[in-house]
Design a protein that fits this description.
CATH class: Alpha Beta
Largest sheet: 3 strands, antiparallel
Strand content: 5-15%
Number of domains: 1
Number of strands: 5
Structural class: alpha+beta
CATH architecture: 2-Layer Sandwich
Helix content: 40-55%
Radius of gyration: 31 Å
Shape: elongated
């Protein structure tokens, strides 16, 4: 009986030596991971926005080149809308890309000035509600906030 009891004590010691993580250790690890995620997530979102801005600027420059090509091939007149660019001969662009800040919507376009000699092509921008038009002074006027990104033959976009 003594031998059996000695074996039970030995098994109990072995069981105590098998260690796992305590609840406090697990909570500390979860807290550290949460802090790291809290630091990294805003930076990731900022980089994502910068990527969308770069995409919009690149696509707007392409559309500006297409509008200028239309002007050259169509008796020095700018198109009434961007969709006209997809049905011209010679073909200028196959499709008009969607605004990355408003998926499903195309870029905005406005003409103005004497004889509609000025145009602006714009993106909604990071806030998602920017717009632009050509004012009476033949300049680009951001008509709904200042977050839109645009290209124009009348003015230069200085932000974002």
């Amino acid at each position: 009986m003594m031998a059996t009891r000695g074996m039970n004590i030995k098994k109990e010691r072995e069981m105590r030596e098998i260690k796992g993580f305590t609840l406090i250790e697990l909570l500390i690890v979860i807290a550290v991971i949460s802090i790291l995620v809290g630091i990294a997530l805003p930076r990731f979102r900022g980089m994502q926005e910068e990527g969308l801005i770069a995409q919009a600027k690149g696509e707007l420059r392409t559309l500006q080149t297409a509008v200028e090509s239309y002007y050259i091939h169509n008796s020095n007149a700018y198109p009434n809308n961007l969709s006209t660019l997809t049905s011209q001969t010679p073909l200028i662009v196959n499709t008009i890309p969607d605004d990355p800040f408003d998926p499903g919507s195309s870029y905005g376009y406005d003409r103005g000035g004497a004889n509609n000699q000025y145009y602006v092509i714009y993106s909604d921008g990071p806030s998602g509600n920017g717009s632009a038009s050509i004012n009476a002074g033949n300049e680009v006027a951001e008509t709904n906030g200042t977050s839109c990104i645009y290209v124009s033959n009348a003015d230069t976009d200085t932000s974002p």
